[in-house]
TrEMBL record, chain B:
This is 3-isopropylmalate dehydratase small subunit. It comes from the Bacteria. Signal peptide: none annotated. The gene is leuD. It comes from Neolewinella marina. Heterodimer of LeuC and LeuD. Its EC number is 4.2.1.33. The lineage of its organism: Bacteria, Pseudomonadati, Bacteroidota, Saprospiria, Saprospirales. GO terms for molecular function: 3-isopropylmalate dehydratase activity. Pfam families: Aconitase_C. Keywords: Amino-acid biosynthesis, Branched-chain amino acid biosynthesis, Leucine biosynthesis, Lyase.
Amino acid sequence: MPTLFDKVWDAHVVTSVPGGAQVLYIDKHLIHEVTSPQAFNGLRQRGIPIFRRDRIVATADHNVPTKDQDKPIAEPLSRKQVNMLTSNCEEFGVELYGLGHPYQGIVHVIGPELGITRPGITLVCGDSHTSTHGAFGAIAFGIGTSQVEQVMATQCVLMEKPKKMRISVDGELQPGVTAKDIILYVISRLGTGGGTGHFVEYAGTAIQGLSMEGRMTICNMSIEMGARGGLIAPDDTTFDYMKGREFAPQGADWDAAVEYWRTLPTDTDATFDSEYHFRAEDIPPMITYGTNPGMGMGVTERIPTESEIHGQATLKKSMEYMGLELGNKMEGMPIDYVFIGSCTNSRIEDLRLAAGLIKGKKVHENVTGIVVPGSQQVARQAIAEGLDRIFTDAGFEFRGAGCSACLGMNEDKIPAGRYCVSTSNRNFEGRQGPGARTILASPLTAAAAAVSGWIVDVRKLN
Amino acid sequence: MQPFKKLTSTAVPLPIEDVDTDQIIPARFLKATTREGFGENLFRDWRYDKLNHPREDFVLNSPAYSGEILVAGANFGCGSSREHAAWAIYDYGFKAVVSSYFADIFKGNALNNGLLPVTVSPQVLDEIFRTIEGNPAARFTIDLEAQTFTNEETGTSTHFDIDEYKKTCLINGYDDIDFLLSQREKIEAFEAQREEH
Ligand code: SF4
């Protein structure tokens, strides 16, 4: 009666340690410039090589500029960090898709699009949104730098098997409601700590009906409710997406792989440590009002006056930071920036969705709109489809690939006090720059805000 | 890694829930390529205003509070996987963080750096906050060997849970990597016998 999670986990246990932890074998390890330098240093100090070089792939994403990507990085510390990734990868023989490489992009966008991410594998990265890759039926989770070093040295991590949760969403989504709204809705119900200690399987007809892009958006934000990761059973949607991708299996290997992948879904009589059920019809277009992703509501709703989920001190602090009042509506509230990007919503489907709404319209004069594709491949595809023109004609900037204003590590920051409707995943204080005020939303709701100049219910927009 | 056995200290209270890693160490300070020096920017945007002047209302800037124990609201360390958060807390001088629960990745990162996360019940957490409010010089003892947290002011002592293996690592200052390296033969045997797709 194993679940999808059990099947994949159990197939990767090398050995168990007294006390409960297990040595878990890792099939794929993705690294980037921010959380790897100290790990490479560790290997150097110990005088040991990378244990399995064919299982590790690097890219530069967090720190890279999104303008003039062909020129040397202007900011000295960023340049140093990105250059260090290059020299470390050379020294240790790691495949690098660095700045300027046609495969460069946000680590969680490139893994799936290159066919590196597969059902049934274990995949880690020194980044909490590694949960994204779970959309393929993989066990994928974020690790700290000490663990990055451990995986480099031994291809394993030491971990206790997390508990299992299933979140089912059944029914039909309303028009204007996307995968992003589903996950913001779920997090608003479960709270930012609701998934702590768990791996979440997303199931139900509304989840099965999503594209791979939508499934990735859902799994991406698992960490926002504290879960170690999320995953979705692989099916024909998964296989259709993967077939023919650069590193996906080919020919007879492909057939054998699909046959195996079909055995992975959770057995019908399997049980979970906890289960939640939601109805797709109940989910409206969502926005956040506070400073963590659990503080979300329907776009037409009022900010709650009290919350059972969050402590009062936290809520008060959050409202002060956001410059908002408990009990007020946000619909119609003017905004300053719109950011369409990040590993949550920067894939081709997200850009198509936003461009579809924007086509023939103009970004409101008080709004600065930025579109940052998740990868070079997404950027090329968008250009081939003419989406870049739709965005630039409307007054958006269309940038080069990277994390950009999702975390404000490069120069793409939202100024203090300004409101940004963002398709990213975190509305923490200062996340998009010191003092920046983030309102999380779907690409549709973000695009609608850009052309309106204020928060708007996309269902009411023509 | 420095071993952790027993600690008696005053504590710094941070009665806020969901303290995320972007508050502990904002992304713009993650450009360093070593593990040292992050303490300077611990809670940067809560500690300093726009002009880099210390904010008087933030607890780390208050002369009344000091110590090697940080006490924080529920769900401490949520958000990013950046180990820099654990490094920053440790580098600042804390040896233990007490909360009613921790985000998973943060907890793992802390343990890998000799920073002890102590999970207590919400009631005990409240009591600790009240004790410090009543007397900022109140002392607390964390005994890892015995797995007890003692409020020296009230004399109450509570048990806390910790993974047996992790406890041994902390007491002896061992890293996971040493253990994993010792398992290389098993790892290679595992690789040899498995069928991969
Ligand atoms: S896009 Fe944002 S959340 Fe995603 S990996 Fe980059 S910084 Fe992290």
